[in-house]
Amino acid sequence: MNFNRRRFIGATIAAGATASASSVLFARSVPQPQPLVPPVAAAVKQAERPPLLQEALAALDRHSSRIGFRDRIGLVDFSAHSAEHRFHLVDVESGRITQSWLVAHGKGSDPAHTGYLQEFSNRYGSNATSRGAYCMANPYYGKYGRSQRLLGLDPENDAALERAIVLHGANYVNESLIDAHGRIGRSYGCFSVKMDEVGRVMELLGEGRLLYAGKPA
Questions:
Q1: N or C end of the chain: smaller count of CB under 10 Å?
Q2: Residue 62 confidence (pLDDT)
Q3: Separation of alpha carbons 149 and 161, rounded Å
Q4: Are 148 and 136 in contact (CB under 8 A)?
Q5: Quick check: 211 and 60 in contact, CB under 8 A?
Q6: Cα separations (Å) of 203 from 95, 136, 138, 206?
Q7: Contact (Cβ atoms closer than 8 angstroms) between residue 108 and residue 189
Q8: DSSP alpha helix (H) spans, the chain
Q9: Strands of 72-77's sheet, edge to edge?
Q10: In angstroms, rounded to a whole number, what is the distance separating the alpha carbons of residues 75 and 83?
Q11: DSSP string, 7-33
């Protein structure tokens, strides 16, 4: 999908409702959309496709002007328990999961700390996880070390940037906690992964790719 200057400016204006002064710092770094890849191969049986894949692919098309790369996506299935590897890297062309990681959900999404996400929220101060489509934005070095900002693209998560909902590593995400307590810790709404895996996750997703989070209906 090749944009000329006039069409690019038009797309930018259309997306202005979600832009903010703080988003300018990474807007220029998100790569421009690349040619579309073929749809998920028909040979992939429905049972082999990860849950939420159809939702994520629909989001990939819906936000095509904001997503620079369509070769792979991050898919987080919050119907799974926090002790499970529920953050998946999915190859778009084949529809198959190529790698999976542990990931925390927000305290406000699981007040009783059951290990299961109970509810989503986009509200300030909720400390909850938000559902929907995100664009992987610029990496930075913060309180938790290597981290990456996320731009919420849907009404259910459009406050992500202002809420500082990011991808980062955390010591409360590890197998030793699962062995001891049957679950990992909780974040304040961020997508927290193991400290020794965050670099790899950031490398594989990078800027300009889709991260989609939700629960299958």
A1: C
A2: 97
A3: 7
A4: yes
A5: no
A6: 20, 11, 12, 5
A7: yes
A8: 5-14, 24-27, 53-62, 160-163, 175-181, 198-205
A9: 96-101, 87-91, 72-77, 210-214, 132-142, 145-152, 166-170, 191-194
A10: 16
A11: HHHHHHHHGGGG--GGGHHHHTTSPPP
What's the predicted TM-score (pTM) here? 0.79
Give the model's pLDDT for residue 161: 97
The CA-atom distances, in angstroms, between 43 and each of 53, 94, 175 are 15, 8, 35
Q: Residue 17 is which amino acid?
A: A
- Domains along the sequence of the chain with CATH: 5-214 (2.40.440.10)
Alpha-carbon separation of residue 25 from 19, 53, 161, 207 (angstroms): 11, 30, 11, 13
Q: Is 179 exposed, middle or buried, given 0-12, 13-18 or 19+ CB atoms closer than 10 A?
A: exposed
User: For residue 133, what are the contacts with CB-CB under 8 A and spacing of at least 6?
Assistant: 56, 59, 60, 62, 63, 152, 153, 154, 157, 210, 211, 212
* Pairing of β 145-152 and β 166-170: antiparallel
Task: Say how far apart CA 30 and CA 26 lie, in whole Å.
Answer: 7
* pLDDT recorded at residue 46: 52
Residue ranges for the chain with pLDDT beneath 50: 1-29, 33-44
